[in-house]
Each structure stands twice: as structure tokens, then as C-alpha cells.
Amino acid sequence: MDAQHRPGNALLEMRGIRKAFPGGEVLHGVDFTVEHGQIHALVGQNGAGKSTLMKVLGGVYSDYEGEITIEGRAIRPQSPHSALAEGIAVIYQDFALVPDLTVADNIGLGREPRGRLPGTVSHGRLRARSTEETVYFGIELPVMKRVAALSVGDQQLTEIVKALARRARVLVMDEPTARLSPTERARLFEIMRMLAGQGVGIVYISHFLEEVFAIAQQVTVLRDGNVVATEPTAALNLQSLTNLMVGSALAASERAENHGEAGASGLELVDFSVAGRKPVNLRVDSGEILGVAGLVGSGRSRLAMGVVGAVRASGKIKVHGAEVAIRSPQQAASSGVVYLPEDRKRDGLVLTLSVGENLVLSALGRGLARLGLVRRKACADTSRSLVERFGIVPQDPRRLVSTLSGGNQQKTLLARACAAEADVVILDQPTAGVDVGAKAEIYEQIWEMARAGTAIIVVSDDLDELLLLSDRIMVMQKGRVTRLDPADAFTRPTLLEAITSAADGNAA
Question: Residue 417's closest CA among 333, 292, 328?
Fold first, then answer.
């Protein structure tokens, strides 16, 4: 009998996996099993050990303890290449594609058919084979198009075909829907189900718990490097899964009624226009949280970037009633306006610096430097205090910020705004890509800054987040404000309607 069909023979088994770093052990004897044709979700808070476990499986970390078997046969991946040779492919959030090459070239990378002359490649055969492979796996892709010109969804699918063409039997997908539109997400789920039907085992890592119930048959929960549960998704619900992740029932987040000095202006925009669009007049008081809603392309992020001088804008900006001139994010920070961008890795953090160095970047002009010289002890004390206050894990300011999980990177950015003692903080997608536990912690820190009198603007795609965080909500469409009301004037359906009706041109 073929091994693939032998009863009780799991596709993948990881037994007693332990992995340690200089700071201590992070995986404490983890067991994880994936059956043929199963979509198995792996969930846990940021820092729970999900990525470390998959990097062990994918050959990134070869210095581990424990056993890994594929269809009952023991393997020990020593590199991503050796893992792939065993049929294990890991697709990370940051795709391993060559942007300037075509889809066909990327699918065939490392497997190029030889041309007639030595040292040459037969591009015709490569294109034909890549086309055949996309058709075989039931995935439609423009094989002659450059990857750089693809949507994020098609880049994701290119990675999938690239992995399957190398005969991957175990496909690990790390936060695959984080950057996808609803249409692309639905298409991806259809393809995942099709692949599972062909016997491929899929490990699905996601902080979107609703999606876990929509796509996975089984779920394993990691907490602090230990497996706390492996259950059929049908045996759980959203609340019970959340409880398993955080260790106890997550108390409903609530905001204390303390908004700083009543009626004091934090940020004021007067006839403020970004890139020639219709002027915006807006006031956000000290201690107030203004949520900004709208579809992609509505002008929300452009408005925020205009305020901090990252894009061309005209009009007046006032901070605490005094007009300020802002032509760059550096000028904005020195004027008391700090912006936390949507893409934390590209635009927010300096990935080559430590956590501590990132924490104090915006505060060097506010007491942490004197006569052009950095006060190192003051910086170190501030960094340690912020790491503790914001619950940044691991609690080591010397650690490279690039090694942190997404949620802890986001907390680092938020802590940096706090260190700068900003008068105004603008947050663009503040909880994108973070889990439910880290999200609650970030909310508490946002509320704490508001209680301290900071004027806060939150741009978010998450309607529930806007309704929970905000005092007022502003709806935007095509660069103009279509509605501005107290948050309690909205429900989720009415906020969604305000956003979509604006898109149809029916907003007031």
C-alpha cells in the first residue's frame, strides 16, 4: 500500500520540538501534526512561538531538539533548500519573489531548462512549463507579466505555484491574507480548499480568528512556547479560542472617561488641502481620539501624511492654538506631531537598530540629547522603562527590532511616540497584523496617551476598532470629509453604510 494512503500515517509530525536562543528556550517540547488534505490553523499571541516552530520545520533553524517525520519517515531539515527537497514549503508575509522577473521566470527559478548552447536557458520551454504548472494546479496567472506589476493577491498565488511546482506536500502560509482584499481572500480560500482536496497539507497561521473558523478543520494554540490545545475548529468558538490564546477570558476593553483639559485644542487644520484636493477644516481636542474611516484610496492616509509633511499640502496647521510650519516628518516631530505609518517595517522602524535605539529616535530633541550629544544613560533608562510599560517581548532593549514579532514591533512604535511626549499622535492602521492579545494592549496604551492629554487620530480599516476607540468618527471619500459625528452616533452597519454610500456619491 502506498505510504500516502496508509491508515494512521500522518503527513507531517513534529514531536517534542525545543528551540533555544541566547536569551532562553522559546519552544518547550511542542507536538504538531498535519494530516493529508488537512488545513490546520496554528494560532497564538505574538511571541507565542508560531514563527519559530515553522522556521524549524522550514529549515531556517536547524539547531533544535525533537523529531520531524514526513509520512512516517524521519527527516531533519538543515536549510530551506533541504526542507523543500523533503516537500515542505513556507510562504512568509514578505514574499521571496524577484520583482523584475516575470511570473513564469519566478515559478521556474532554480529549475530553468537548458537552452541549445551551454550555459543558456530555454525561455520558451520555461514559459510553457510554468503555464502548464499554473493550469495543473488550477491557478490562473498572467505568466508573462512582471511580478512587480502584480496585485498582492497574484504575488501570493505565484508563491503558491512556485512551491507546488517543486512538489511541496506541506504548505505553510504565514498570515497569507494580511494584505489581501476581500475578493483576493475569497479566491485564496478557494485555492486552499482545492489543494487540500489534492492531498496537500496546509499550515495556516493567522491572527484573523474568524478566518480560522472559515477555512481550517483543525486548530493548534501555542502560548509561551507550549501547546495549550489542539482541537477541531467545530469544537470551539471565537470566545473559547481567544481564551485559549491569552490564558483567560479577555476582559472587554473599556476606556476611562478622562480626556485631558476640556476644550483645549490639540490639532487644528484650517483650509488644509493635500495635493490640490478639497480643503479640510478640522479640530481635534487634547485627549480626544478621532477615528478616520473610508475605503482604500479615500484620502485618509494622504491627509495624515500631508499633516506631517510627507506629501505636498497647503493650508494652516495649529498645535495647541499656535501655527506651526511643517515641511517634513522631522519638522512635524519637533513641532509635537508624531506619525506612525501603516507600513511599520518600511516607513516606521529602523530595522538595523535595536529596540532601545528605535524607542528614543523621536525623543532625542526632547531632553535625551544635549549640545548635539546623546545622553546614553538617559536613553537607556527611558528604553527600559518603555519596554516594561508597553509589555514589549522579549524585554531586552538591546535586541534588534527586526527580530520582534509584528505586535511587539507595533508596540515599539507606539512607545516611541510616547517617549517623544507628542502633543498629537497620528496612527495609521495601528493594529494591522497583530493578534487579539496585543491588540488589547495597544488599545490600552492609546487610551492612556489620550488620558494624558494627547490628541490622537486613528486611521483604520477595522470598523469595530474605530467604534471602540473613538470619541468622534470622520468618514472620507476622494479626499473630502463626507461625515463627522460622535462615535456613538454610529453602529457597525451604519458606519459601513456611510463609507459605501460615500463611494456611490450619496454622502452628505
Answer: 333
